Amino acid sequence: MLAMDYRGPYRVRAAHKPDPHIEHPGDAIVRVTRSCICGSDLHLYHGLVPDTRVGSTFGHEFTGIVEEVGPDVQKLKPGDRVLVPFNIACGACFFCERELYGNCHHTNPEATAVGAIFGYSHTAGGYDGGQAELVRVPMADVGPTVIPDDIDEDDAVLLTDAFPTGYQAAEMGDIDAGDTVVVFGAGPIGIFAAKSAWLMGAGRVIVVDHVEYRLEFVKRFAQCEVVNFREVQDMALHIKRMTDGLGADVCIDAVGCEAAGNAAQTLTGLYTMMQAGSATALHWAINSVRKGGNVSIVGVYGPTFNAVPIGNALNKGLTLRMNQASVKRHLPRLIEHVRAGNVKPSDIITHRIPLEEVSDAYHIFSGKLDHCIKTILVTPG
Ligand code: NAD
Ligand code: ZN
């Protein structure tokens, strides 16, 4: 089969790899029809995630047709059209029982923190991902959801991660009616966090980024105010001035560790790691929220970014919440929002690029080129 192939920082290609097969009775093989590139893939691409092995296949946002199921699989059959949440979860452990699928204990037992994720390095279980023609889906009765006939597959693929993660970001912010919510990051996650903040009763939503076309997009898509941080000298002061001197009720970090520029060399990648170490969006989120406010973090920080401005957070009496999204928990509600026309997730798709051109696709998404917001990799079959 054709699949994305990681060669090292800033180097990916399409390559022929052996077809996956059923390895455990609970597995399914899915023929991928749509897979996306996520901001999380960029951390792998930029070399910021440890134990990302050469030869691995990324991709944790995908839909497809079930090709084959193992003998223990009961809820799926060949031919089913499915969306597959990015979390690989057992459905039965302490965490899954509490719907914390993103923290499943069994699928990634060696990790101290994260649950397993498709195509996300050996720190997240070492499973191959869905930027491929075929993918093995473990625990196939737990995560995959048959796509209802009235839901468009372009919308469905955004329910595997981007929309649920944005939604969970807003949910963790514990928004009260009328609250002012500031979202850092106007990528797919920030865009859906802004949209979700309204669904949860926010009174005002402000999105901060520096990529002008993304700010224009989110202004339209989520009817929010926007701030270009390149035009601001002191972010916390700026947000305070916008909010009667108090600060925002809720701040959401939808950025995580950010690579600078559109670098294409490993050397620049190293420079990038030093820059990203400042965790600017997280600092801004903590410093821009009002005293006693809530900070919700879904932006991903690799282990080298474990320092937080904890002193300010303590002195301000903040509530900090963060997690990997638990996609499955949100699906019933989000499918209803899509059905009701409250959100049209596929509106954020700007690019459809053949899997053969995966290298260009990463280059464009990473560099925020060509007005890119969300890319779907199209498989030949
Ligand atoms: P993206 O790269 O498309 O978007 C990030 C945006 O942040 C960009 O538009 C960039 O210009 C902007 N940005 C950079 N520095 C900023 C700053 N200091 N302040 C404000 N904006 C800034 O990525 P995405 O797909 O939207 O993902 C965003 C983050 O969410 C990533 O860290 C990703 O790993 C993470 N994520 C987390 C989960 C989860 O479950 N917790 C799931 C998916 C993605
Ligand atoms: Zn993702």
UniProtKB/TrEMBL annotation:
Pfam families linked to this entry: ADH_N, ADH_zinc_N
TM annotation in the entry: none
Gene Ontology MF annotations: oxidoreductase activity; zinc ion binding
All copies of domain Alcohol dehydrogenase-like N-terminal, residue ranges: 25-144
UniProt signal peptide: none
Entries under InterPro entries matching the protein: ADH-like_C, ADH-like_N, ADH_Zn_CS, GroES-like_sf, NAD(P)-bd_dom_sf
Entry keyword annotation includes Transmembrane helix: no
Known cofactor(s): Zn(2+)
Keyword field: Metal-binding, Oxidoreductase, Zinc
All residue ranges annotated as the Alcohol dehydrogenase-like C-terminal domain in the record: 188-265
Protein family (similarity comment): Belongs to the zinc-containing alcohol dehydrogenase family.
Name assigned to this protein: Alcohol dehydrogenase catalytic domain-containing protein
Organism phylogeny: Bacteria, Pseudomonadati, Pseudomonadota, Betaproteobacteria, Burkholderiales
